[in-house]
Amino acid sequence: MNEDYLASIQKHTDILSFRDLAPGTVASYTSYLKQFLEWLEKEIPGKKLSDLTFEEIRSYILYLKNIRELNGRTVNLHIAQLRDFFRYVLHRDWDPYMVPYLRFDEYLPSVPTREEVETLINSFTNCKHMAEIAVMYSSGLRVSEVCRLHCGDIQVSNNRIYVSRSKNRSDRFAVLSEKAYKIIRAYAYWERRSAAKTDWLFPGQKEGTSICTQSVYNVLKKQLETLGWQDKGYNCHSLRHAFGLHLYEAGTDLISIKEAMGHKSLSSTEIYLSLGIGNGRSVKSPYDL
């Protein structure tokens, strides 16, 4: 890759970091830009970035859509990255009418039943893995939030879990389940007996680090295969969805579920209205009235 492109990648990365975006977002946007510049170098050799046209940008988007067959949601992430690149690195105005976002299909997620969740959690023989999955479901935490928990974040006296720096860049409290706490307490007795409140609840392999999200993904994937559930479409986020849906089925109002899950907008919580049809809170068909 030519020096101009490499310098642009570095400048783009520096600006993303300066904006204090999450490390994962910085890595993703940097990767998207590299992919674009590699395509540009191959398809339009010698092209100066200052002379980029929206027609060329659209050609790349069509390449992502038709050749690489990326879904609309992923293509829109590439478009967002290119928009930021135009604005912050090339110092050019971005015209959303020249490169509009793609429409994409919305699919309902696969969500395990209460019985399936119980079976899954109880199937673990490793107490650390059992505790990770139990906390994720019982408190509705994101996998990244589970990985960043400290021992002192489990506040038994208040029946809550302190969650710092969530996806919305804000602290919050999540509910602490009595059943999950028993699992955490057993895990702590065997593996974290001498841990301080500031230590990671789920440490990684390297000293001083927390477990990484990929490790939890791998643990769950392996357990689903053990149960013969590899084709059910479940993943770590399915457990968070299960938390929200099961609360909704039990009669909890959407505002309370929104607060419990740390959603920034109620629109994120409204998915449980759709998931709830045919489950505990479904309406009765007028044909049967």
Q: Which descriptors apply to this entry?
A:
hpI Integrase, Chain A, 289 residues, globular, 2 domains, three-stranded antiparallel beta sheet
Characterise the protein shown here.
- 54% of the residues lie in helices and 3% in strands.
- It is mostly helical.
- The chain has two domains: 3-89, DNA polymerase, domain 1 (Orthogonal Bundle); 114-275, hpI Integrase, Chain A, CATH 1.10.443.
- Strands 1-2-3 form a three-stranded antiparallel β-sheet, with no helix packed on it.
- α6 crosses α10.
- It is globular, with a radius of gyration of 23 Å.
- It starts with a helix and ends in a 14-residue tail after the last helix.
